[in-house]
UniProtKB/TrEMBL annotation:
Species name: Pan troglodytes (Chimpanzee)
Pfam families: CH
Alphabetic keyword roster: Actin-binding, Repeat
Domain Calponin-homology (CH): 28-131
Gene Ontology terms, MF aspect: actin binding
Protein name in UniProt: DST isoform 32
Superkingdom of origin: Eukaryota
């Protein structure tokens, strides 16, 4: 009986390790893909992101990305202190909210602190809004979300 419990625990641990490995791999692929997507747009203003989590922390690249995607000019703080970084990220988040982009549980300090999951989530939301919302497919209606269009398109 005890031997069976230990075997079940080992099987469970092996499955957890495998699952974590897959999740880490998925995050790496998303990070690489999103970084390339961002750089494709930032090259228009001669900027470049090397590390997605680090290079968005001060908000400058995030604001530049939104400016390129939208054609709008956004204000920004020029200082280098944490307060300025938080303010720049907040400017970007507020801009997205004004454009009716739904941001769930993403705060300025999450991005400023380099939170990988929430940074990936923010960039995916930006991609959905600015890239995928431009997809036009047969059978779509005007009030379809970007996610619904993507699913219809596939």
């Amino acid at each position: 009986m005890m031997g069976q419990l230990m075997k079940n625990d080992q099987d469970w641990n092996a499955k957890l390790v495998g699952l974590m490995c897959c999740m880490d791999e998925r995050d790496k692929v998303q990070k690489k893909t999103f970084t390339k997507w961002i750089n494709q747009h930032l090259m228009k203003v001669r900027k470049h992101v090397n590390d997605l989590y680090e290079d968005l922390r001060d908000g400058h690249n995030l604001i530049s990305l939104l400016e390129v995607l939208s054609g709008d000019t956004l204000p920004r703080e020029k200082g280098r202190m944490r307060f300025h970084r938080l303010q720049n990220v907040q400017i970007a988040l507020d801009y997205l909210k004004r454009r009716q982009v739904k941001l769930v549980n993403i705060r300025n300090d999450d991005i400023t602190d380099g939170n990988p999951k929430l940074t990936l989530g923010l960039i995916w939301t930006i991609i959905l809004h600015f890239q995928i919302s431009d997809i036009h497919v047969t059978g779509e209606s005007e009030d379809m979300s970007a996610k619904e269009r993507l699913l219809l398109w596939t």
